Amino acid sequence: MDSPSEEKVKHDGHPDLEHYASAPVAGGVFDANEEHEVFKTTAGVNFRTVEWPRATVIFLKVIFAVGVLTIPTALYDLGAVGGTLSVFGWGLLNTWAAVIQGDFRNNHRGCHSIADMANEVGGPICREITGALFIVAYVLLTGSGILGVSIAFNVFSGHAVCTNWFSFVAMILVVAAASFRKMSQIGWLTWAGFASVFIAVFIVVVAVTQVDRPAAAPQTGDYELGFAAIAYPSFAAGMVATCSIFVSYAGTSAFLPVISEMREPRDFRKSLYLCMAIVIASYVSFSLVVYRYCGAWVAVPSLGSAGPTIKIVAYAVGFMGLLVSGCLYLHVGAKYVFVRILRNSEHLQADTWVHWTTWLGCTGGLGAIAFILAQAIPIFNYLLSLTGSLCFAPIALSLPGWLWCHDNIAWRRGKWWQQIVFWITALMIPLGMFICVGGTYGVVVEIKEAYASGRIGSAFSCEDNSGTTAS
User: Fold this and answer.
1) pLDDT band at residue 402 under the 50/70/90 scheme
2) Which of 167, 375, 402, 436 is 20 to 30 Å from the Cα of 124, by its Cα?
3) Element containing residue 8 per DSSP (H, E)
4) What is the DSSP track for 122-178?
């Protein structure tokens, strides 16, 4: 007969998930869920302090700032109808992928990251490949945050000094903000960051409707707006646009370390659904308005689409949001490396010099790499598209499909509707592989053309790419 600590029970509210029951021990009740969690509430430094409302804002800040700055450009390549359908479709699919990841984490409490989940279904080799993709993804996203902050500095100063110096200062600020150890400690930054970028984008959305023609378009004579309901892009341009929209939602793997620091990990669905509802509605409405009034003349990032004065105002208001984006991405990537190094060590949740040296080494080291990559690919939407195709397609599409099939293998031979759901979800696996190969090819082709045409200068040049438009 199994001991009480080995008895499995159904989880309240999640009948498809099995969890270990609480078992009586000397001096009180031992929670087997707590035993399998990476961060213990009984340890020296308690990381489990995030409530679900704060988790919602962290999720929002991880997702929102990226997409809203790049989707209007993607709509130029896909057209208003195709682009809107893509925004809705990727939003719903990434929400489903996030549900799969969160449920899998709560069903396998020892999973702190997407790499731990890969280990559950594919073993150590799959874990290391996934972990490498995860780190690369969040280093690239950190680079996009550094690039966004450096563009803001250029806007404020009128490009007073070389962009490389602004990028270096941006890196220092991002690393400093990311070096707080707990998600709850940067919680107030996420509130301020989300509010600032939301207001900044709203200012731009209103401003573009109040001018006779886009700020980047010729101000006299006839001009072509570049607005179309249906567009016919090349394969490379279409894949870059698709990856830009996909990556705008695909950072769901960053939710997992946050779930591990929630007081009650079972509440993650509340945070997820509220976050994704706000994000999808905002992406569709904001992006369509900017594309309708700017067409081919939308700036990348889109905060520069309404003219010099509004551009300064928008970047001033949204500066905190750009900084916090880089901070969150770096924190998530560094936390993964930190846990991998110190897991099952007394230093993981102890105020020791090993603990602090490891943590600061992770934030500083990854921040430096992100700075280098941001200078090598200094156009915002290309950097994000490469992140989506190369890294997030496998870990945010293919792997969640595999995870769901692993935990629901009985559905393959279940009722007819269960079989349909099983095979539809299984299609996420080849879809992710297609986006990975096709998207990476498209981004490489577009970057090569941008260098050849002079839209991108040499690596570590002093050029400012904030004025790049879709055309």
Assistant:
1) very high
2) 436
3) strand 8-11
4) HHHHHHHHHHHHHHHHHHHHHHHHHHHHHHHHHHHHTS-S-HHHHHHHHHHHHHHHH
**SS in 3 state form for 332-363?**
HHHHHHHHHHHCCCCCCCCCCHHHHHHHHHHH
CA 268, distance to chain mean position in Å, is 17
Does the structure show a pLDDT above 70 at 8?
no
Rounded CA-CA distance 3/8 in Å is 10
Contact 121, 111 (CB under 8 A): no
Q: Phi and psi of 404, rounded to 5°?
A: -65, -45
pTM of the model: 0.82
Please give the structure tokens belonging to residue 312: 């300064």
pLDDT for the residue 29: 32
The b-or-e profile of 12-47 (16+ CB within 10 A means b, else e) is eeeeebebbebeeeeeeeebbeeeebbbbeeeeeeb
Domains of the chain, start order: 1-36 (no CATH), 50-453 (1.20.1740.10)
- Quick check: 433 and 394 in contact, CB under 8 A? yes
Token pair belonging to 328: 């969150």
Cα–Cα distance measured from residue 373 to residue 194, given in angstroms and rounded to the nearest whole number = 25
Picking from 247, 276, 340, 242, the residue whose alpha carbon sits closest to that of residue 102 is 276
Residue 469, pLDDT > 60, answer no
Q: Quickly tell me which residue has 């946050």 as its tokens.
A: 258
- Average pLDDT of every residue of the chain: 84
265: preceding bond cis by omega (within 30 degrees) = no
Q: What is the rounded CA–CA span in Å between residue 102 and residue 109?
A: 10
Residues 263/270, Cβ–Cβ less than 8 Å = no
Question: How many separate helices (H) and strands (E) can be counted in the chain?
Answer: 17, 4
- Residue owning tokens 């689409």: 305
> Which residue do the tokens 């299984």 mark?
426
Q: Which residues share a beta bridge with 25? A: 28
Q: How far is CA 177 from CA 145, 171, 243, 357, in A?
A: 12, 10, 28, 16
Please report which helix (H) or strand (E) contains residue 24, including its range: strand 22-25
CA 310 to chain CA centroid, Å, is: 27
The per-residue pLDDT for range 38-49, each reduced to its tens digit, is 666 655 677 788
**Cα dihedral 146/372/187/343 (nearest 10):** 170
Tokens describing residue 436? 């990975």
Nearest to 77 by CA among 443, 366, 390, 399: 443
